[in-house]
Amino acid sequence: MYQIDAAVTAWINNWTGHAPAVDFIMVWISTLGVPLMVLAVALQWWPPQPDRTMRHVVVAAGLSFLLGLGINQLVLLFVQRVRPYDAHVTHLIIGRTVDFSFPSDHATASFAIAAAFLVHGLHRRGLAFLAAALLVVLSRVYLGTHYVSDILGGAVTAIMAATLVRAAYRQNTRADRLITGIL
User: Fold this and answer.
1) Catalytic, out of 18, 91, 106, 123
2) Quick check: is 106 catalytic?
3) pLDDT per residue over 11-53, tens digit each?
4) Catalytic status, residue 146
5) Measuring CA to CA, which residue among 176, 63, 70, 51 is closest to residue 115?
């Protein structure tokens, strides 16, 4: 299984260095993709018409994001996978990082946002966030920082987090009305 993962990862990363404009765009997406997604979620707190349902989903997306990244930290205590560039699978075109590869925090963060919108029934927005998440994770493999399986692991963590938040953080509860009534 590792050979397939490494081969697909290397194939995606092999495109680096052939088109400087594409390299630049991928670095830009990798660097700013998640922060721009977070900003896009936060801006939905103030729609033209006050909407507590949207605010509920915004809070759920934030909780899914944080829970997913928290789960990643627990996984990293047990799974300490070296980065593909350290295993000589990929060629890195950005700065090195000191943490381990599995699961991908970028994948977890971006897919948690998309999954939160999807599990709450906001499909059009969820699909738009999913498209953005796919660009973010493609950029991470393209740049040489992650294996494809790191991305899949992050996506699974994100979906689990969004599902847990959906089950635990219910709309129209006292806590939800308090939170969504702010500002």
Assistant:
1) 106
2) yes
3) 999 989 889 999 999 999 999 999 999 999 999 988 777 788 8
4) yes
5) 63
